[in-house]
Design a protein that fits this description.
The chain is mainly alpha-helical. The chain is about 75% helix and about 0% strand. The N and C termini lie far apart (about 55 Å).
Amino acid sequence: MVRLFGYVDVTDTGFIVAVLSIAFNPLFWNVVARWEHKTRALSQVFGSPHAACYCLGAVILVLNCVRSHCFTEAMKSQPKLEGWDLHWTYYSGLAISAVGTLFVISSFLALGFTGTFLGDYFGILMEEKVTSFPFSVLDNPMYWGSTAIYLGWSLMHASPAGLLLTAVVAISYTIAVLYEGPFTEEIYRRKQKGVKSK
């Protein structure tokens, strides 16, 4: 791992922008979603919880495109690890990215748009916890699928900078899960309590 740091200029502006964009995204959507859950301000501005959730989802998608662009530009501006610039590394990265894409797409299909983009914070609750694939394989498959896509992309480009940025993605998602998980569980616990008291 120390050897990889020799290939990465962490003071490069593009690298710093990529780190900031990676860290910003989950912070943004968690702060906005909690604010919405507490105040219902976005639902009031947009006229309904669904419209507000769709708007936040669109903003998150744009931010994710910006993050991916920054990630890619940071990788391209840093040196490759020549010993990894081989066919097997490329195809290993491609396979990891394919698995990650499978997890992301299947998560979206299982959750739907509002389930994916924090609808529960808007009061748009699912009937029950999703336990079908990919949730039957691992918790938070969208986050780990996204991380796998970045890992695969980094391997495909033999990029030590990409690997380091992937670690930042994994750390950001780990923090997001620690922040989101208990809060979301509490939302559904209250829902169940309300149903039982009727």
